[in-house]
Records
---
Amino acid sequence: MQIEIWSDYVCPFCYIGKRHLEQALEQFAHKDQVEVSFKSFELDPEVQTDPAVSIDESLAKKYGIPVAQAKEMNDQMIQRAAQSGLSYNFDNIKQINTLDAHRLAKYAESKGKGAEMAEKLLKAHFVESQFIGGLDTLIKLAVEAGLDPEETRNVLNSGQFTEQVRSEEAEAATLGVRGVPFFVVNRKYAISGAQPVSLFAKTLEKVWQEEHPSAPLQQIESSQDALCTDEKCDI
């Protein structure tokens, strides 16, 4: 079974959605036959990395709201993440363009470290408030994932993997992706947003039954082809 996840490393719902899928997979009897891959998506490709701009200020500018209101929204997100077992810390998160983070993720994927890198980038940003828009931070995370520091530096200082990032973003556009996280299962079913663990679990069972009709039947609700539209970050 193939699961592709379009996400961005500054999307708080993306980390929550990732956790929900992982929790569903832990309950799935055939999890060892599921391959998960991460696809590139930038919520705001034009935003500039700026360590002087806080996440509250960045959100306020994006939506044209007061900074105080943006902080309230982020505080609510912290509470929402806690329900999924994630300890978000927005105190020191800064405005970041994620192209380099996506390029690093694609490089890690080419070395068989894609899943580890995705987790490290999300955790670094949302839980540890690390500046994933900075070269030094990205290299440090790459080393932690088992990648060579000098090779990583060379990749990040060049344009390597930019084309792959853009190709995946273009593919998202053809699929009609307007927000993330966006999960595609076997190119047949789509789940949009950080939906409940139960929906991911039912989708896994449904797809498995379709591919293995002789398997024992499970009492599940059908996941609809129509996209769920809540619990996601929109562009």
Note: Residues 5 and 38 are 5 Å apart (CA to CA).
---
Amino acid sequence: MSIGSTMSVCSVTFGLLTVHGGANPWVAAGIALLVGAALGLVNALFITLLRLPPLIVTLATLYLYASAANVLSNGTDINGFDGDGFSVIGQSSIAGIPVQVLLVLLPLFVVGSYVMRRTVFGRHVYTTGSNAAAATLAGVNVRRIRTILYVVSGVMAAVGAIVTASWLSNAQPTSGTGLELQSITVAVLGGTAITGGVGKLSGTFLALLLVAILDSGLQLAGVGSTYQIGLLGLVLIVSMLVRTRSVVRESAV
């Protein structure tokens, strides 16, 4: 639940380092990735060591991180860091394809797919998601798996903050507002089970494309953002109904 707020903190951190700290944008981007990892680790420690419910912890850090982003930036956008070719990430394209897709999204998708499908870690992730107790009895270090996943989640939020900052040429304390719900929507729409243990990055990738195309198409059609959110919710409900019926049919067979 705190993925959006994590992105906001990373965005503000990047902006402060470049504008007020005088850091090179690329160096600041690297530090923002470390900040994202640290914020993800905070979630992991509360959940794995103190054994607090993940929903409560991430909901709490959603508010804490959002507040931190606003306090650090004084509630204002940070501008003036477009230098050293940093804008190429979010504002350039190759053969009509945005650079952030070619150099960020696709490489991360390929690496993530390989890890989840071809490595022991990937299998342990699915096992932990399916049944953490059984995974522990099978020798899986569930705490370590969960900690790594929360850290990776924080890093991915930082990547989103960097790409967004390059695209907009500013860092916003509200850059991640509402994205936690969108990320959940894309994951569920792509076939990931909220109960865990089921899902593929390929399905998530296709769901992301569907949502992006839907948003772009609605904007071109002049449909307001309020209706866009409603239609996205409708698509999610329909997809869940279709999946539920398919599961029931498979169980009957």
Note: The two ends are 37 Å apart (CA to CA).
